[in-house]
Design a protein that fits this description.
Blueprint lengths: L14 H27 L4 H4 L10 H5 L13 E12 L3 E10 L3 E5 L4 E12 L2 E14 L4 E8 L19 H13 L3 H14 L36 H16 L2 H11 L3
Helix pairs in contact: 4-6, 5-7, 6-7
């Protein structure tokens, strides 16, 4: 076939070849770009490379770590391991009520001492710098000693004055009955009777009809309310002997003796 008669492909048939060639070129360019990005991720930035012992390589995992990005990378390595650390263990404090001590007084019965614990940690470090740790096991090697404090709750007791003159008791009076009654019923001597006289002198001046309209307290012992004394007899409102019996029983049960009641009254203003 002559040159003039040679068949020539239509122009529209050449376009697919051109499109395919463009796609191939784009893929090649994309591959080169991806390779460049990958290579860039494996190299140290210029401001770090100057101080790095191996400026051409850094551990990619370390670079991606949030904590690692905050420190200067020198060798590009991440290490994990364990570490044992000694810790101080605080002691506890216990407060106990003590009836053998005066109310409010504090005494250290036992001193507290701190203990010691050994804690095993799992440690993660980047380039020799610890970035995180988690506790694995805790062992007490020296147990702490609990501190014990005693706090007094005993009611203060008045001490009878041996130099005080003897109490003059008019025969047939409420005081005379009280002196005989507390000696026979409770075995309280003149010292306790002296405390009782001081206490009830303050409360009612030994007046069986003394009455506090505000609180309802009544009689020689100033029982509040006065109707409590009905347990000692139905004539509690006017009979001094019934009031003395009830008052002595109340003091014995609550304070042990009249001096104990007087001591409480001296410190608080009531008994």
């Amino acid at each position: 076939m002559t040159q003039r008669g040679r068949h020539r492909a239509p122009a529209r048939h050449a376009k697919p070849k051109d499109s395919l060639r463009k796609i191939q070129i784009s893929l090649i360019a994309l591959g080169v770009f991806a390779a460049g990005v990958s290579a860039k991720a494996q190299t140290v930035p210029s401001h770090l490379a100057a101080e790095s012992g191996n400026p051409r390589f850094v551990n990619v995992k370390a670079l991606k770590d949030t904590a690692a990005n905050r420190i200067m990378l020198r060798h590009g390595s991440v290490q994990t391991g364990t570490k044992v650390v000694s810790h101080r263990v605080k002691y506890k404090v216990i407060v106990k009520r003590d009836k053998s001590l005066p109310k409010g007084q504090k005494v250290v019965r036992r001193s507290g001492t701190a203990g010691r614990a050994m804690i095993l940690y799992r440690v993660r470090s980047v380039n020799g710098v610890v970035v995180s740790r988690s506790q694995v096991r805790r062992s007490i090697v020296v147990a702490p000693t609990t501190k014990v404090i005693a706090v007094g709750v005993a009611t203060p007791t008045a001490t009878p004055d041996p130099t005080a003159p003897a109490v003059v008791v008019p025969p047939g009076s409420a005081k005379a009955f009280a002196q005989t009654y507390i000696a026979d019923r409770y075995g309280w001597g003149n010292d306790q009777f002296g405390c009782l006289v001081q206490l009830w002198d303050r409360e009612s001046h030994w007046n069986a009809h003394a009455h506090n309209s505000g609180s309802g307290a009544h009689g020689i012992p100033q029982a509040m309310p006065g109707s409590k004394m009905a347990s000692a007899g139905p004539d509690w409102y006017n009979n001094a002997e019934t009031q003395v019996k009830w008052g002595a029983g109340y003091i014995s049960g609550r304070y042990g003796n009249p001096c104990g009641a007087l001591g409480h009254s001296n410190s608080t203003g009531w008994y």
